[in-house]
Design goal:
Strand content: under 5%
Distance between the termini: 49 Å
Structural class: mainly alpha
Order of helices and strands: HHHHHHH
Radius of gyration: 21 Å
Length: about 120
């Protein structure tokens, strides 16, 4: 679900909403969730109620306990929710922040191993 910058009041549902839904649908107790994730019942309770963020480590645990979900999906839900909340909280301030660099001038970040330059590949 994407949230536009114009609608700062729209906060996407977070991982706690999905977790509560899955727990209800499959009758999973907080104790069972805690045992499956190898965390305390307090942690499971906080996670289910949205009082604890989904970290990369927790996302991997959720991915393992709930096949069909991925760690990236859990983290994406968390990030989207937090970004929407930040936009809502900063709505007045954001209007005062000037554009420093046009988007077209920002280099794209590249990941993965760097390719050998064409000069090096010709030498050898």
């Amino acid at each position: 679900m994407s949230v536009s910058t114009e609608d700062a009041s729209a906060v996407p549902s977070g991982p706690a909403d999905l977790l509560r839904h899955v727990m209800k649908e499959h009758r999973i107790s907080q104790r069972a969730l805690a045992a499956a994730l190898k965390v305390t019942v307090v942690t499971a309770h906080q996670l289910q109620n949205g009082d604890r963020r989904v970290t990369p480590q927790m996302a991997v645990r959720l991915e393992k306990a709930m096949p069909g979900t991925s760690a990236l999906e859990w983290l994406d839900m968390q990030a989207r929710m937090e970004i929407a909340q930040a936009r809502a909280e900063l709505q007045d301030t954001l209007g005062e922040i000037p554009v420093l660099v046009p988007v077209a001038e920002i280099p794209v970040l590249k990941t993965g191993p760097k390719k050998a330059s064409s000069a090096k590949s010709r030498r050898g």
